[in-house]
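Bumping with the actual sequence this time:
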Amino acid sequence: MIKIPLVSIIIPTRDINDYLRQSISEILKLDYRDFEILVLPDQKTEIVFDKTRIIPTNAGPAVKRDLAVKEAKGEILAFLDDDAYPARDWLKNATPYFKKANIAAVCGPGITPPEDSPKQKASGWVSASILGGGTLNFRFLAKKKREVKDFPSMNFLVRKTDFNKINGFNSEFWPGEDTKLCLDLTKKLNKKIIYDPRVLVFHHRRPLFKEYLKQNCGYGLYRGYFARILPETSRKLVYFIPMFFAIFVIGLPIWMFFVSSGRSFLFFFYIRTLIFYSLLLLLTAFWVLFRTKSIKIALLTIPGIFLTHICYGLCFFKGLFTKKSKP
């Protein structure tokens, strides 16, 4: 019999919620026999799941993951969010990569589950679209296999020995601890992170608008901060574009109010740019309609993308000047 590596599936959570129950239920159906599940809620619980160890830990996600690794018995660590669940062949498709010593980690897309509400699906398509997610939309939509330098820990598998060599996650950061981990794996160890669309999980979305935008504001804030202190991962045009757009949409009308020279030119440039942007939103909505066959979801993506650009852009700008302790 061919030996397959033991995988420790690590799930930080605040409590034993319905999404977590679904996740464990689907994990137990995996087409892979050698795995254990480590769940880290804030409080102790009497609830018991098969092949699962409950480790009460009242701390942030990064600290919980680091603690779980100390308890993990597996050769491979598989990090999963508590609102995500894997496809049946998740581990079967991921583990063969670890036969190559130069590959430290494997990741894959987090697809919006079919059972999510229309507002959740719309927020998923905001991120999965080119206009909304940009060149990073492969994180939310199955795209071609590639090497990546940065990937979120909602679906991330890493060799335990490599994880320990870089001392795990940096608990000073959240969100963003996964960005620091990826940087350490690729720079300090000079190893690869491989994205494979077959290493797939289903990731429940925050519904539009309030919960989703609040989450994306957090992402924008940490990415702006990282753009200053970790340029290797975050000082990239794709992260700055929403900031430029938000400053343009909000700042140019204010500027026109105070200046008289060239106001007419600026006004027409402003209007024409917004018209072009609106056409892109409309084209994206038609693309979503083609993919989902849902007019409601397609229409929701229009304000969803616009508000994402504004909120993320403003928070990114704020993050550039946020004062935090360096790692």
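The tokens above came from a reply further down the thread. The longest helix spans residues 263-292.
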